[in-house]
Specification:
InterPro entries: AAA+_ATPase (IPR003593), ABC_transporter-like_ATP-bd (IPR003439), ABC_transporter-like_CS (IPR017871), BCAA_Transport_ATP-bd_LivF (IPR052156), P-loop_NTPase (IPR027417)
Number of domains: 1
Distance between the termini: 26 Å
Family: Belongs to the ABC transporter superfamily.
Helix content: 25-40%
Radius of gyration: 17 Å
Strand content: 25-35%
Structural class: alpha/beta
CATH superfamily: P-loop containing nucleotide triphosphate hydrolases
Keywords: Amino-acid transport, ATP-binding, Nucleotide-binding, Transport
GO biological process, one term: L-amino acid transport
Number of helices: 10
Number of strands: 10
GO molecular function: ATP binding; ATP hydrolysis activity; branched-chain amino acid transmembrane transporter activity
C-alpha cells in the first residue's frame, strides 16, 4: 500500500461486525489517486460490507478508514459524500417513482447549490444521452442498464474525487456490461479514482490498476491485476466468475 500522498483511500486493519459475526477480518488496501482498485471475491466474501464501512453506512469495529488523508471515524455518510465521494450502490437503488430528472435533482440538492446542481444535471444529460431523451420518464421504467447509468449520473452530481461502485454489472445484458465498463474507464481518464466491487473478475481485472481478492472476510491476495490473473490457484479458487 502506498503512502497517503499517493492515495485517496486507505483501509488499515479493517474489521466489520454484525453482532457476533465478523464479516470483515483485519483487511488493508488502498486506492491510488486516479487509479482503479478492483475488490473481488464470491458472494459473502465481505466486499459489500467493506464498501459500506468505507461509505460510513455500517460502523467500523476496529481498524481505520482514511479518505484523502483524513480518518473517517465518526464521520456521517452525508459528510463522506460531501468530502468528495460518490456512491453507486448494489442494486442501483434509484427512486423508481420519480423521473430521471427528479432523481438527479434529489442528488444535486444534497451536494451543491441550486445553480451548480442545475449545471451538473445538464452535463449528465449530455454525458448519458439516453437519460436526456428520457429525462421525464419514471426511473422505474428504465432498463437495468439505463438505471445503472442513472445511478452513475446521480453519484457524479457531487463531482466526486472517489467513486465507490458496488456490482455495477449485476443483472445486465452483456452489451450493456461493456457499456458500463467503458464508462468506468472514461471516468478514470478524467481523473476520478474508483473502488470497484465486482463479481465479474475478468472484466474488473482488465480495467483495474490494483486488485484485491477477498474470501471469508479476509484478503486472499492482492497486487497487479496481471499477476492475480496469472495465479492459477487463486484464479481457480476465487476468480471463477
Amino acid at each position: 500500500m502506498t503512502g497517503q500522498s499517493d492515495t485517496v483511500l486507505d483501509v488499515e486493519a479493517l474489521d466489520v461486525r454484525y453482532g457476533p459475526v465478523r464479516a470483515v477480518r483485519g483487511i488493508s488496501f488502498g486506492v491510488a489517486r486516479g487509479g482503479i482498485t478492483a475488490l473481488l471475491g464470491a458472494n459473502g466474501a465481505g466486499k459489500s460490507s467493506t464498501l459500506m464501512a468505507i461509505a460510513g453506512v455500517v460502523p467500523v469495529a476496529s481498524g481505520r478508514v482514511s479518505l484523502f488523508g483524513k480518518p473517517t471515524a465518526k464521520t456521517t455518510p452525508d459528510a463522506i459524500v460531501r468530502s468528495g465521494v460518490g456512491i453507486c450502490p448494489e442494486g442501483r437503488r434509484i427512486f423508481a417513482s420519480l423521473s430521471v430528472e427528479e432523481n438527479l435533482i434529489v442528488a444535486g440538492t444534497a451536494v451543491a447549490t441550486p445553480q451548480v446542481a442545475a449545471t451538473r444535471r445538464e452535463e449528465m444529460m449530455e454525458r448519458f444521452p439516453i437519460l436526456g431523451e428520457r429525462r421525464r420518464q419514471l426511473a422505474g421504467l428504465l432498463s437495468g442498464g439505463e438505471q445503472q447509468m442513472l445511478a452513475v449520473a446521480r453519484a457524479l452530481m457531487g463531482a466526486p474525487k472517489l467513486l465507490l461502485m458496488d456490482e455495477p454489472s449485476l443483472g445486465l445484458a452483456p452489451q450493456m456490461v461493456d457499456t458500463i465498463f467503458s464508462i468506468i474507464e472514461e471516468l478514470q481518464r478524467e481523473g476520478i479514482s474508483i473502488l470497484l466491487v465486482e463479481q465479474n473478475a475478468a472484466l474488473a481485472l482488465e480495467v483495474a490498476n490494483h486488485a484485491v481478492v477477498m474470501a471469508n472476510g479476509e484478503i486472499a491476495g492482492q497486487g497487479a491485476p496481471a499477476d492475480l490473473a496469472g495465479d492459477t490457484l487463486l484464479k481457480s479458487a476465487y476468480l471463477a466468475a
